[in-house]
Amino acid sequence: MTGNHRNSSITRRRALAVTGGTVAAGGLAATGYQSAFADTTTETTATASAAGTGACMTLMSSVTEGPYYLDGALVRKDITEGKSGVPLTLRLTVVDATDGCTPVKGAAVEIWHCDAWGYYSGYTTANPGGSAPAESEDGSTANDATYLRGYQIANANGVVRFETIFPGWYTPRTCHIHVKVHTGGQKEDGTYEGGKVNYTGQLFFDDTIAEEIFALQPYSRHSGSYTTLGNDMVYDGGGASSGLLTLKAVHKADPSKGYKGSITFAIDPDAENAGAGSGGGGGGGTPPSGAPTGMPPSGAPSENASPSASASS
């Protein structure tokens, strides 16, 4: 995928206060954003197709956590902080694959992903590959250490919801969202503390939809070689069990209105899998130039960070 735009030197911008999930100039109309997140789906309890307990689904395949993980993400539904992009609402369900697909109430689902130009919060000077504007040119008031990261706690049906934007891409990866499922901990000081990680994975997007999105603003200002699913170093072609999202357009004739994505995580609550460490290990590939070394940057949230005034549960 290529496009015409100007080159910019990449400089780190100021870290500002976390704001609400409004769409910045150059992004989408607020009405489209809000309609994408209007969810009228009736909650249903996840159950096994057969009565009784026992295995019900294939366990999700854990993979590398990648080079851009940070501790201390905030518990909140809306993680956009004003970042521009096509709206994406996620409905994620956690079930116990060892006990008849019963919902895992209280599981903490944590996600993080890049913005429309391939930049991660905490690492805004890491080169996303190709040719992209500097992260500071997006016009948002997002906090450089926290945008597009967050936790949600599963309800009695094992369900969490996030409001975010469709991720961009960075070399050499396909479009994806990172995810961890935690159990045994609790919400504390605006984040999630304790417990263990049961699953570390990544969520993926159909190539046709991704390429359609990347032709829109602001994504189209990032040009270069986009990696498709079949050529990605992490996605193994296993469909939903490997993290491929089910996507539904909010408006079929206008992809800029956004998408709804859903998937069910089948986990073993007694198991622990934190994924490979930062960097390219565990199938994550070599990070792009300027990628982190594994230490959070100065000013990034910590495990004992105070919650932002605008963080919402």
Overall geometry comes to globular
**Percent of residues in helical segments?**
under 10%
The biggest sheet, with number of strands, parallel, antiparallel or mixed sense and barrel status, is: 5 strands, mixed
**Total number of helical segments?**
2
On the 0 to 100 scale, the average pLDDT is 78
Q: Look at the helices and sheets and give the structural class.
A: mainly beta
Walk me through this protein's architecture.
- Helix content is 5%, strand content 22%.
- The protein has helices spanning 30-36, 207-214, and strands at residues 87-96, 102-103, 108-112, 149-153, 159-165, 176-188, 191-204, 246-249, 259-267.
- Strands 1, 2, 5, 8 and 9 form a five-stranded mixed beta sheet that branches.
- Strand 6 and strand 7 (191-204) form a beta hairpin.
- The radius of gyration is 18 Å and the shape is globular.
Précis, in short:
The protein is mostly beta strands and 313 residues long.
Write the layout of secondary structure elements.
Elements: H1 30-36, E1 87-96, E2 102-103, E3 108-112, E4 149-153, E5 159-165, E6 176-188, E7 191-204, H2 207-214, E8 246-249, E9 259-267
Parallel strand pairs: 1-9
Antiparallel strand pairs: 1-2, 1-5, 3-4, 3-6, 6-7, 8-9
